Automatic annotation (TrEMBL):
Summary of the function given for this chain in its UniProt record: N-alpha-acetyltransferase that specifically mediates the acetylation of the acidic amino terminus of processed forms of beta- and gamma-actin (ACTB and ACTG, respectively). N-terminal acetylation of processed beta- and gamma-actin regulates actin filament depolymerization and elongation. In vivo, preferentially displays N-terminal acetyltransferase activity towards acid N-terminal sequences starting with Asp-Asp-Asp and Glu-Glu-Glu. In vitro, shows high activity towards Met-Asp-Glu-Leu and Met-Asp-Asp-Asp. May act as a tumor suppressor.
Subcellular location: Cytoplasm, Cytosol
Protein's name in the database: N-alpha-acetyltransferase 80
Organism annotation: Nyctereutes procyonoides
Pfam families: Acetyltransf_1
Length: 255
């Protein structure tokens, strides 16, 4: 290592330059539940917090709730670089049961290590969790996304309708919550019906009587059905939103 006088630039000699971490092989990756590998909880928490910062204690508590009874957290693991080292956590996904849909699962979160994105690990994670769910008797997966529609569409996912994930399998939420699922305002301005009481009777006149006026149209409502029968979402826009008010797209796939 050499340090030039009067300079803050640090230069590593070629013989001492650190080696790049080898990229894991897709064929060697495995998918395992977090609760089956408690020694990897810290590494999994670090990977998730890299994308969604949160207190470490809260993240570890959330991961600690994983169980075969759902919600269930999965880790995409790379084999150990050395016999003494632990496997590398490449990705993470969280699955939960769906209200009133016993054969469906909701994919709550999907994340891949930032340094490994764009190399096929996201696809491998999704394919692995689909096999995992199918092997346990589930037939459909649901998920939401803000900006990854094309990625999921390439994996066979299509636009779907909102569903309610169950935080705990012993706690069922009212089905009315689904019907009241928040939706972004319609791009069309709300219709304002004219006031009937403000109208005055026309003056009497000679000649044939005029036909009665047509009935007033009903005002638009805020139901999940879009005005004029249009779908509530397309690949370009959506009328659904998350709890923060950001637009989201609901997608689903039969497995």
């Amino acid at each position: 290592m050499t340090l030039s006088p009067g300079s803050t630039e640090l230069t590593l000699e070629p013989a001492h330059q650190p080696e790049e971490t080898p990229v894991p092989s897709l064929a060697e990756l495995t998918l395992e539940p977090v609760h089956c590998r408690p020694e990897l909880l810290d590494a999994c928490a670090d990977l998730i917090n890299e994308q969604w910062p949160r207190s470490r204690a809260s993240r570890l508590h959330s991961l600690g709730q994983s169980s075969d009874a759902f919600p269930l957290c999965l880790m995409l693991l790379s084999p150990r670089p050395t016999p003494e080292a632990a496997p590398i956590v490449v990705g993470h996904a969280r699955l939960s049961r769906v209200l009133d849909r016993p054969q469906s699962l909701l994919v709550e979160t999907v994340v891949v290590a930032r340094a490994l994105r764009g190399r096929g690990f996201g696809r491998r994670l999704m394919e692995g969790l689909e096999d995992f769910a199918q092997a346990r008797g589930f037939r459909r997966l649901h998920l939401t996304t803000h900006d990854q529609l094309q990625f999921y569409a390439h994996l066979g996912y299509q636009l779907g309708e909102p569903v309610q994930g169950l935080v705990f399998t012993s706690r069922r939420l009212s089905a009315t919550l689904l019907r009241a699922f928040p939706r972004a305002p319609s791009p069309r301005p709300p219709y304002k019906a004219p006031s009937v009481t403000a109208q005055t009777a026309p003056r009497a006149h000679k000649g044939p009587s005029l036909p009665p006026p047509p009935p007033l149209p009903e005002p638009l409502t805020s139901s999940l059905t879009s005005p004029a029968g249009l779908p509530p979402q397309s690949l370009l826009e959506t009328q659904y939103q998350d709890l923060r008010g950001c637009p989201i797209f609901w997608m689903e796939k039969d497995i």
